[in-house]
Amino acid sequence: MSLKDQKDINYFRLNNEINIPSKDGKIRLEKDQEALEAFLKENVIPNTIKFDSLKDRFDYLTKNKYVETEFLNKYPFSFVEKIYQYLQEQDFHFKSFMAAYKFYAQYAMKTNDGNQYLENYIDRVAMNALYLADGNQELAMELADELIHQRFQPATPTFLNAGKKRRGELISCFLIQTTDDMDSIGRTINSALQLSKIGGGVGINLSNLRAAGDPIKHIQGAASGVMPVMKLLEDSFSYSNQLGQRQGAGVVYLSVFHPDIVDFMSVKQENADEKIRVNTLSLGITVPDKFYELAKNDQQMALFSPYDVEKEYGVPFSYVDITKEYDNMVKNPNIRKKYMKARDLETEIGKLQQESGYPYIMNIDTANRENPVDGKIVMSNLCSEIMQVQTPSIINDLQQYDQLGTDISCNLGSTNVVNLMKSPDFGKSVDAMVRALTFVTDSSKINVVPSIRRGNDLSHSIGVGAMGLHSYFALNHMYYGSPESVEFTGVYFMLLNYWTLVASNKIAKERGESFHNFAKSKYADGSYFDKYTSKDWGPQSDKIKEQFKDVFIPTTADWKKLKQSVQEYGLYHQNRMAVAPNGSTAYIGDATASLTPIVSRIEERQEAKIGTIFYPAPYLSNDTLKYYQSAYDIDMRKEIDIFAEAQKHVDQSLSMTMFMRSTIPEGMYEWKDGRSEKMSTRDLTILRNYAHYKGIKSIYYVRTFTDNNDTIGANQCESCVI
């Protein structure tokens, strides 16, 4: 029997019985374990190729070009045997049917015909540890320890591809920008094709493009604006889909002050004309503080011609501080502008978020105000958590670079909060994770888009994040968004920040190298550390002190010592932290996704060709049941409070999805009293403004659970969420 010829399958039937309450009305959690056992017995064991020895296995894999030989040759085979022995001694077992099913369906290496498995979870862990350690035996053992105990989970592209001979890139996503000329637009479309081909979502900044009606040099006519470029990009992603294995995924960002902003958002409206409708491309808008001010005061807002702004300021539109220059730009007669009421645009944003979940919101001034490195952040990525500085490129008529700018590639990994809190050495665990991700950035050579490669070579950026926060709260009897849960989140991310800084500083010292323009950063002048050297960020309440009783908490003296070391030796990584949605890898790690609350105690997951799979929340039991409230039943201000507390310590951003019901539960939001219980654009406006006030850098999807049990605003970023 092969994987393509499965008959008499019991595990799906047993899994579906989870959703059928027992006679006493209880959730039949035992059915999940029965489904897991049946899956391993009926699917995994009979369809896994057996080898007489580990040596025979690797000889087969290398001879048949399943596995690279280069990284294996960096170790004596006796060490490979040693790491396997250690991993087997840890007695790893999947905790849920979904975890095992996800791993074997999407991560386990299979034979070329797809009929048999060539590896189990231990094999994939060993491949990641050996590959990411790059010949360093001590680091390989440390990574094996972190991975098998699921304290660290590399992002999907890394975990899936590490060590394979025929593989995609280890990178999660890419960010590129276009400038206001046809050569740059053409290069951007080509870059989108190339990056989509090799995997990962692609973010593209269109704010610099001249608006519809702006003049075109040497031609009697006017520009068509950003809309046609969006259609070209959507077609590019549809075409470049890795031979049909995955849908090309992209997001385009536009400034809220761009004259095409209303048309830009209209492409996602339910009644949009098919000529302009964009079906698969995601939308994001960059929102300066000035927009919130104008909307609050119910004022008109000016939408500025990017073409004229660039002529006046000598830099692309995205690189002008609109909040600072707004009044000057309004007064400048050389800058064409049109006007609309800020609140009308605010309402349009809310309407579209209700209909489609879009647009993502990027609070651009918040991102730049909190940015510790030299340069300007102008956009984000497909999941809204990557925020790094970029510089524009200048393309000539030969599609070559007259000036090579810097763009962004992201390599990510997540800590599992529940498991990392059990680590015998929190700092040592984080050090191993940082070094693993450092190998990914060091080995990344995206030559097809030179600006991506240059940005990576100069910045060495990584993104350490987290998953399983709601799991941790439930296990420790904390309601999501309660004061103690907010306090825990702050301490946890303070520790991640501290230890990623320590690790980056050590690597800079070892290599004698810091990221580009380190000397111009707030790290170099020491100002970044002021908030840590002037205040104790450790736990304050007795409950949170108890949870961190076995974890080292840095004092202000420790921060001062770290500050001195960073100023002396530098940091290797320009960026260190970012929190992705990590849905897929969270299933494997039996963790709740990212920092968000669960959607349901028993999640219904639609799997292609299979149907519905039911997934009980991790660690669900009578003991944790009441602490697992659905995100749709939680005041979103509580979620914002959690994310805002983490954001204080994260140099990039956090992918924050907001969850709403089309009919708001009674008493959830005080401003609904006496009004319709139906969700309105006003509700979303209040929450967006609250998020901005709390220092949130970005809002990902707005997911709405409708009265007919449908969900609007589904995830499309396969690299982070599969």
UniProtKB/TrEMBL annotation:
Gene3D superfamilies: 1.10.1650.20, 3.20.70.20
Biological process per Gene Ontology, one example term: deoxyribonucleotide biosynthetic process
Any GO MF annotation of the entry: ribonucleoside-diphosphate reductase activity, thioredoxin disulfide as acceptor
EC number: 1.17.4.1
Ribonucleotide reductase large subunit domain mapped to chain residues: 559-581
InterPro entries, A to Z: NrdE_NrdA_C, RNR_1b_NrdE, RNR_lg_C, RNR_lsu_N, RNR_N, RNR_R1-su_N, Rrm1
Assigned keywords, A-Z: Allosteric enzyme, ATP-binding, Deoxyribonucleotide synthesis, Disulfide bond, Nucleotide-binding, Oxidoreductase
Chemical reaction(s) catalysed: a 2'-deoxyribonucleoside 5'-diphosphate + [thioredoxin]-disulfide + H2O = a ribonucleoside 5'-diphosphate + [thioredoxin]-dithiol
Enzyme category, top tier: oxidoreductase
Keyword Disulfide bond: yes
Keyword Transmembrane: no
GO CC, one annotated term: ribonucleoside-diphosphate reductase complex
Function comment: Provides the precursors necessary for DNA synthesis. Catalyzes the biosynthesis of deoxyribonucleotides from the corresponding ribonucleotides.
Family: Belongs to the ribonucleoside diphosphate reductase large chain family.
Protein name listed in UniProt: Ribonucleoside-diphosphate reductase
Organism: Fructilactobacillus lindneri DSM 20690 = JCM 11027
Lineage: Bacteria, Bacillati, Bacillota, Bacilli, Lactobacillales
